[in-house]
Design brief:
By secondary structure, this protein is an alpha+beta fold. The chain is built from 10 helices and 6 strands; from the N terminus they run H-H-H-E-E-E-E-H-H-H-E-H-E-H-H-H. A hairpin with a 5-residue loop joins strand 3 and strand 4 (106-112). Helix 3 crosses helix 9 (194-204). The longest helix is centred in the N-terminal third of the chain and has 22 residues, at 29-50. The mean pLDDT is 96.
């Protein structure tokens, strides 16, 4: 499997940014399909690496065609590749994402993008009851050497309904997403070590995933909710 991404990926998207229309894309579609084939090999190489230390049940590489039905932006094509890696449910929770885009806009992300309503409440209740374990994970030196202060996500302005806005863990409770992100330059993405860099970073998230998976598969008394 391809261990590097072709430079042509960025070159093509830069041209597409200036010619984002169906006529140009259809005329250059053979070039895109060739690049897409190589990029898919790279995503599958990431999948292979992940499955050496995790359990991934699905890789989804998103199509280049934009859904413009409900968007003010009517440009028909994305100017990036995106792919998500889903951990095996229900025992394992969370997921990984790889985004390839020119002009130093590439990034990886991992965590919980859109937790189900029930999962979000369970996480918040856990933090309300005891935030010491998650704090310990976030403060870990080895964890920080990889992910630093990249813990992001949308949040409510004050406090979710039913929670005290003065609670000591309100910074965690008010989050609606629990995501870590890392950005990369075009040069870093095209480097021969990029595949290993992605894998190293994803591997380092495991203490967070192990903790969150335990939370989301047990009730507030620590009793398993799965068979």
């Amino acid at each position: 499997m391809s261990a590097t991404l072709p430079k042509a990926t960025f070159d093509f998207f830069k041209k597409l940014e200036k010619n984002n229309n169906r006529d140009w894309f259809n005329a250059n579609k053979p070039e895109f399909k060739a690049i897409e084939g190589e990029v898919k090999l790279f995503y599958n190489a990431v999948l292979e690496k992940l499955n050496r230390h995790d359990e991934i049940d699905k890789l989804k590489i998103f199509r280049i065609y934009r859904d413009v039905r409900f968007s003010k932006n009517k440009l028909p094509y994305k100017t990036h590749f995106g792919g998500s890696f889903h951990r095996t449910k229900p025992r394992l929770r969370g997921g990984y994402y790889l985004h390839i885009q020119p002009n130093n806009e590439s990034f990886i992300a991992t965590g919980f993008w859109e937790p189900a309503k029930e999962d979000l409440m369970r996480i918040r209740k856990e933090f309300e009851m005891d935030d010491s374990e998650i704090r310990e994970i976030l403060a870990n030196k080895e964890f920080n050497s990889v992910w630093g202060d990249s813990f992001v996500g949308d949040e409510v302005k004050s406090a979710p309904r039913g929670f005290d806005k003065e609670h000591k863990a309100i910074d965690l409770i008010k989050k609606k997403q629990y995501i870590f992100t890392k950005k990369y330059t075009d040069k870093e993405v095209l480097d021969a070590n990029f595949l290993n860099e992605i894998d190293k970073s994803f591997k380092a998230i495991r203490p967070f995933f192990d903790y969150m998976s335990d939370v989301l598969t047990t009730d507030l008394n620590g009793v398993s909710m799965i068979d």
